[in-house]
Design a protein that fits this description.
- Helices cover about 30% and strands about 25% of the residues.
- It is of the alpha+beta class.
- It has a five-stranded parallel beta sheet, with helices on both faces. A five-stranded antiparallel beta sheet has the order 5-6-10-13-14.
């Protein structure tokens, strides 16, 4: 079992390396966004190390941060709070900040956003470096230039798509070092949104693949999806297929709402420090293994729901081996 607590010296050393990777300079401001569930050892260490490095840190704490099951929620849109967030040079969000209204405004102002969504032991193990950054950027360039991407598997997956040329490739390399960037500590992966209607084929999720949203566990029975015109058209298989179908149905706002069934971001992991079998260590605890399971080499991440033109509450993430 992973240990949530690590020694103060090890944690501060990791934070010092992370701040350095994020290009933190003396005199810059660091906003620490936390909620009632945030790890106080981690938040306090972030304060201490930022001060040691000559930066000015302050904490904004709400009762409940972004619910990672329902992306695009905005706990910092109250008057005053948004200004305090958006004015920082570097933001450490101890809950999911991506796809939120406050995050977009802060980045537009030049803030660097770093999501810190794992326990200290995982952060230390998964911490990336410039070599991983170079690999991620190279993969992102290749994905963006591809005219067609075809994903094949022995289980029967045969999915084709391509990246929307009007949208940037998500090239996550684990630290935010340029103005307006947004990354997650330890996450190394590339992903894209296909243009509306551009994903077609079949996706077969087999036992041993993993849910990471809205559940955190191994898939136990086959989920066989027909994808046509960018949407899941049919769901076949065992008990997990039934869960998949019901999850999408529950997210509908009306009988005619198809947004939860849309194909969302697609990509793969590139962090050699991440491991597929992390799911065996701590099932049902997304804050311990979510980053690793998105990032382990060899996975293909399939997802449904939100997109550039969709704000649906339905969101499924499934890294497939």
């Amino acid at each position: 079992m992973w240990q949530t607590k690590v020694g103060a010296a090890a944690l501060c050393g990791a934070l010092r390396r992370q701040y350095t990777l994020c290009n933190l300079q003396p005199g810059e401001t660091v906003a620490l966004l936390s909620d009632a569930a945030s790890d106080r050892q981690l938040v306090d260490a972030a304060f201490e190390v930022a001060s040691e490095m000559g930066a000015v840190a302050y904490e904004l704490r709400v009762h409940t941060g972004t619910d990672d099951r329902f992306m695009q929620s905005n706990p910092f849109l109250a008057p005053g709070l948004l200004d305090a967030v958006a004015g920082a040079n570097l933001i450490l969000s101890f809950f999911v900040g991506q796809l939120s209204g406050w995050e977009r405004q802060a980045r537009a102002n030049g803030a660097r956003l770093l999501n810190v969504n794992d326990v200290p032991s995982q952060l230390i193990r998964l911490q990336t470096n410039p070599e991983i950054k170079a690999a991620v950027l190279a993969a992102g360039k290749r994905l963006g230039e591809a005219k067609k991407v075809q994903v094949l598997s022995e289980a029967g997956t045969d999915l084709t798509f391509y990246a929307d040329p009007e949208l940037p490739i998500a090239a996550q390399y684990g630290y935010s070092d340029t103005p307006g960037s947004a990354h997650q500590w330890g996450q190394a992966m590339v992903a894209c949104f296909p243009p509306e209607g551009a994903a077609h084929g079949r996706v077969v999720i087999k036992p041993g693949d993993v849910w990471i949203l809205p559940f955190v566990r191994m898939v136990a029975s086959t989920i066989d999806l027909e994808i046509r015109d960018g949407y899941v058209q049919s769901v076949k298989g065992g008990a997990d297929a039934g869960v998949f179908q019901r999850t999408l149905e529950r997210a509908k706002t009306s009988e005619a709402d198809r947004d939860p069934f849309a194909v969302s971001h697609l990509g793969w992991g590139l962090n050699p420090k991440a491991q597929w079998d992390d799911i065996m260590q701590e099932e049902d605890n997304s804050y311990w293994i979510n980053t690793s399971l998105r990032s382990y080499p060899g996975n293909f991440l399939f997802s449904t729901g939100p997109g550039p033109k969709r704000k649906t509450k339905g969101h499924i993430d499934l890294p497939m081996n």
